[in-house]
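Quick one from the shared queue. A colleague (R.T.) flagged L-lactate permease as missing a structural entry in our internal table.

Convert sequence to structure tokens.
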Amino acid sequence: MFIQPLAPVGHSLLLSFIVAACPILVTLFLMGVLRRPAWQSSLGGLVVGLVIAIGLWGLPPALAVASITNGVVFSLLPVMWIALCALLLFNVAVHNGRFDAFRGWIIRHVPNDRRIILIVLGFCFSAALEGVAGFGTPVAITSALLIMLGFLALDALTYVLIFNSAPVAFGGLGIPVTVLGSITGLPPDVLGATIGRQLTPFACLIPFYVMALYGGWRSVRQMWPILLVAGGSFALTLLVISGAGLYSLSNVLSSSVSLIASIVFLRFWQPAPDPEYAIDLSQINAEKHASTASVPLWQGWIPWVTVIAVVIAWDALHIARIGALPVHWPGLDNAVFISLYKSVYAAVWKFEPLGTGTAILVSAILSAVFTRTTLGQFGAAIATTLRQAWLAVVTVALTIGLAFLMNYSGMTYTLGYAVSSTGMFFPLISVFLGWVAVFLTGSDTSGNALFGNLQVAAAHQLSLDPVLFASANSSGGVMGKMISPQNITTGVSVTSLKGHEGVVLARTFKHSLFLTFCMGVLVVIQQFVLR
């Protein structure tokens, strides 16, 4: 059995921390500085991680290969299966004209102002998609819609990635909170309520933050009523629902209330017309295909209402459990001892043929049936999805392969142990543990599984609130979602920026760091002021 070392580099925790961070730093450097495509950056990080894991951490090559392959398979099912099916739903809507109809409905019922569109779609609509799909698909779908409405591709991606933060902790019907509870042994409803309180101010302020980036303070002054309605209704619903113990419905209900409240509010209030932010409707009308011009605009909602309804019903009926099979990974399961937790490291891949991805696939098929999509259109949607997503599949496989390698070698636990050893500074920087984990895996669920216990152990050692810091792992992790190679790569898959993920990372990185630091300050206040 391989025993993970915590400080193998010169028996120094500081030196080991620096070396363990190298795969992450290499990936960030290649993407953000050299502007290399995400797959090349992830491959570079994986190669560096493999050399360090075997050469310095002493991980046997067979275990290194087994951990990487385990990560690659996990990246395919469930991660990319969910993303692929969500992209298929999107492309079915594009090919049968319902995406154009949805765009037309937005244009007709929302004021002709790109700032309003950004809030309604980039924040409210994207959050609803995050609640049922996640894994970058809300970014891809919403960005594509914003681009069709006149946004620059880089702007659309950047702002949607920043918006795609607060909803993440309760995405997939609250799975990240459920996993955090099972890992730490803490009540998930209590964790959900704490996470809700941590994210409430950010949910309310994020629309103001993004509007300041997009249109400056002048736009914030002009748009503050709708910013307050969108962010405030989301935040208030999140606070109430998560506080009531219904964390699994927090994101779906919050985003739905925010979307409905914003659209209804815009029936009574509209900003003064501003030609600088007006959509060029003549150009959009010229782009319409004659074959889709007769599609009723209300049918543009069919794909999205269908997927939300199916996924909620799927979860309520526990359909994902049917045929589920735990697969103990050969050569890796119980072959590693986690020194930090003093426990054996299991390697169990959960095979779920009827998981969330399949629910979204069923939604795509039902949507096609409801809209009388032809077999030719459906086949074209499949071909388009494969063409768009194959590079994202490769990138995500490399990224999660690196994450699993770092986990089983012990490099990730060295990073976590070093951070948890910072004593009085730990309350401020604990959120960066979740941030690192979500950067690597692209999943708040995986980040909670990785560092949830570490946060609790460190809190006990420092006489801090374990519930607060377990929750901080999840809340800090959501801020790392906007720089995750997996999230960015899936997001750019339907835009002209494919292969330019580094440009997107360079735009979002500083905002990710800033918002994570702000979350750390909030955790300090919760621990030392509000208790």
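The longest strand covers residues 325-328.
The mean pLDDT is 89.
Added to the table.
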